[in-house]
Amino acid sequence: MTSILINDIVPILVIMILGYLCGKFRFFDNDQRQGLNKLVLDIALPAALFISIVKATRAMFAQDIVLTLISVFGVTGLFMLSYFLDKKMFHRNTQEAAVCALIAGSPTIGFLGFAVLDPIYGNNTTTNLVIGIVSIVVNAITIPIGLALVEKGQEKTRHEVANSSSKTTRVTIPGRKPGEKAISRDIPDGVPVTDEEAKALGEKGLDREIDLVRAEMHDHAGEKAKKKMNPTLRAILNAVKQPVAAAPLLAVIFVLIGIHIPTSWAPTFDLIAKANAGVAVLAAGLALSTVKFTIDKEGIWNTFYRLFLTPAIIVAAAYICGMGSDPMKISMLCLATGLPPAFSGIIISSRYNIYVKEGASSVAISTVVFAVSCIFWIWLLPILHGMIH
């Protein structure tokens, strides 16, 4: 247990503090911070997700169908429960609740899964099975759902602002190319903006949510045709176009139809994927430096939901579904789903300026409290198994 804390939790905290200090001492400006977020979100994280999932096989899913079903329905269901509870309890809008679910409702399985479970249970087939299945669910199902909800919420916001007499802020957008003239634009208050508009608003001291789709796409040809599409379907399609959603979905398709990536290709993906974990944690610290850190009710609730309530529900479901004969596998599943928040959530939060303060605080609190929750579950589960049997 001590080795887990020293080798896994302490490095996360140190790098997060480093990112926080870099932000506080202006080592990175806002453009550079967004550049780091784009590096993780559009390149390093998709590569890491793709190469980790594509190594799986169809036999892995069939090896333990109960474990697979609990992971799929349990993790996805608890992700959606986090979304609905955040809207209900803390009165968040759709995109804020979606990012909350990406943080409070998703474990950082790809980063900490092997680091935590291997020292406790050993590097064996069962460990790899649990981590692999939970990782696929988190990265190939919940991330696309979360991004689709963000896009749906932002579209609703745009529609509401368009049909209201909202005030506007006039900004000057510099030309994208040398010699191109700057243009002045009136931006309605409250509407999600592009990166360029956000930068111009920032010069006036205004902080604004960045539009998920417009931040990544500059070509709006065919916009009229898109407006005829069902809003929910359009939100889903726009979400899966993002590399962080498209890469794991493509990998799952490859696995299901039996396409194997040559092992000689793995080092290419691994090289850029290795940048993901460190830069993601550094970027989380940078995000934390941009807001006033507080320990409030929402941060405490998110921490409790992520580290205690989620694994408790998963353990209960495992026993109800007949996994009681294999307490070791239940223990693995408990810790795999009870890891700190997925760093992809805080990167998405920081990239699009949604739920940044609450998200960064939740990640920081949960990472520290995980040192307690991990020991708690390892102590409790054998006692619980003895009581049941």
List its salient traits.
about 400 residues, mainly alpha, two-stranded antiparallel ribbon, 2 strands, globular
Polypeptide structure, described:
- The chain is built from 16 helices and 2 strands.
- With 389 residues, the chain is mainly alpha-helical.
- A two-stranded antiparallel sheet has the order 1-2.
- Residues 218-226 have low confidence and may be disordered.
How do the strands line up in the largest sheet? 1-2
Average of the residue pLDDT scores: 82
User: The biggest beta sheet, please?
Assistant: 2 strands, antiparallel
Measured by DSSP, the beta-strand proportion falls in: under 5%
Radius of gyration: 21 Å
Q: In terms of quaternary structure, what is this?
A: single chain
Number of helices: 16
Which class do the helix and strand fractions yield? mainly alpha
Described by the principal axes of the CA atoms, the overall outline is: globular
Topology:
Elements lengths: L1 H23 L5 H24 L4 H6 L1 H26 L3 H11 L4 H13 L3 H38 L5 E6 L9 E6 L6 H8 L20 H5 L3 H10 L2 H15 L8 H24 L7 H24 L6 H11 L5 H10 L3 H33 L1
Antiparallel strand pairs: 1-2
Helix pairs in contact: 1-6, 1-12, 1-16, 2-11, 2-12, 2-15, 4-5, 4-7, 4-13, 5-7, 5-15, 5-16, 6-7, 6-14, 7-10, 7-11, 7-14, 12-15, 12-16, 13-14, 13-16, 14-16, 15-16
What is the gist of this entry?
This protein has 16 helices and two strands.
